[in-house]
Amino acid sequence: MPPWPRFLRAALRVAMRLVFRPRVVGTAPSLGPYLIVANHRSWLDGFMLLSELPAEPRLYFFADWNATAGSWWKRLIIGSLGAFVLVDRRAAFDRSAVADTLKLLGQGGVLVFFPEGLPAHDEERVDPFRRGVGFLALRAKVPVVPIWMRGTGELYLGREVLAKIGVPVSVPDLEPNKENTERVAAWLREEVLKLGDPWVEPQVAKKRLRWLTHLF
Asked: Which tens digits make up the pLDDT trace of 143-175?
């Protein structure tokens, strides 16, 4: 990884510990390529994984081009980290994003996918996974690592946020048609759900800086 993105990751790691209490359970594979598939609570999910998982193999994330195009500071962060594949969600199928993803995986990278699309902001809800993750998993033919995100739905100072890493799974060798991509997406959702525990809301006297929930 180049020095500048490495420095930004280190700064992000420090910031995470100043504001939140990040915790990782389990260990991600030390060698790529592979896909990470996780549930999506808030904007913090991606930044937490970028902060807490090892710098190598390098992580890459999908980012909505339309959501970042109108915000200079979002473009600055994404461009500086150099860890995002921009996707045009207005298109039914963004071929350039798929090509970029397969290229990064071919170089030994790790792609992080939040297949629910929009964040739920709800600790008890996991929306259906979009079949795009099934298509990508079938096309890439690499292991998939499920991760359970917990505590990022509502953010405040001192909040414990958790990433629970599961065991890599192998994707069946199937044609990436509509039926198979939907089946694989549903199967990957179940793999993520297996890692979850019943949610118990922590008792906090005062939730400071709750505006962090909708920061990004």
From this structure: 999 999 999 999 999 999 999 999 999 999 999
d(CA 184, CA 15): 36
What residues contact 103, with CB distance under 8 A and at least 6 apart?
none
Give CA–CA dist 111/59, Å, rounded: 6
For the domain made up of 3-214, give the CATH fold. Glycerol-3-phosphate (1)-acyltransferase (3.40.1130)
Residue 185 near residue 115, CB atoms below 8 Å: yes
**Helix, strand, coil share (%) of the chain residues, nearest 5:** 40, 20, 45
Tell me the two tokens of residue 83.
Answer: 């860890």
Side chain identity at 96, as an amino acid letter?
A: S
**Gap between the Cα atoms of 145 and 120, Å rounded:** 21
Please give the Cα distance from 10 to 132 (Å, whole number).
Answer: 32
Domain ranges across the chain: 3-214
Q: pTM value?
A: 0.89
Cis ω before 57 (30° cut-off from 0): yes
The pLDDT tens digits of the residues spanning 37-68 come to 999 999 899 889 989 999 889 888 876 665 55
d(CA 153, CA 174): 35
Between strands 84-87 and 34-38, the pairing is: unpaired
Distance CA 96, CA 93 (A): 9
